[in-house]
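User: I'm preparing a small set of examples for a lab meeting where we compare how different chains pack in three dimensions. I only have the primary sequence for this one, and I'd like the structure in token form so I can line it up with the others. Please keep the answer compact; I'll paste it straight into my notes.
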Amino acid sequence: MIIQENLVWCHIQSPVGELVVAGNENHLHHIGFPNGSRTTEIHPGWTHDPTPFAALREQLKAYFAGELITFDLQLRPSGTDFQKAVWQALMDIPYGETTSYGALALTIGRPKASRAVGAANGANPIPIIIPCHRVIGADRSLTGFGGGVETKAFLLQLEGFSDAEPLLL
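Assistant: Understood. Below is the structure token output for the 169-residue chain.
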């Protein structure tokens, strides 16, 4: 992840724990989980200020209440062109549906890049909003997730994901 200086940050409480969010008055740059492989430490160049995150806080509250299926926020994820292409494709996965890494690779025109798609998915700096939790293994298993597989299962179940195959942990 590219750490940008001069961002503001705050904590937002959620059913999946205390999220760390960072951005500026115009764009959301980062959401970090309290657990899992991608926990977030506050960068020394960031300033604590909850003010720019009022819309995010309200939209997350509505999402976790089951009242919001599409976020309306200005995002500024930092990454490579390939990562950004993957993250843009993630935004097109409908609420309550899933896809596989291989299918996502096909979507971006790189059919042999499923592992690279998985790596880009794992590097997503704005999870939940950029719905990387909607990507599962080709065998329908819940593969790794930066916030922990339990969080991924929670988010999918919140969205009403249902399939003939059970969620495999």
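A couple of notes for your slides: Residues 164-169 have pLDDT under 50 and may be disordered. The two ends are 27 Å apart (CA to CA).

User: Perfect, thanks.
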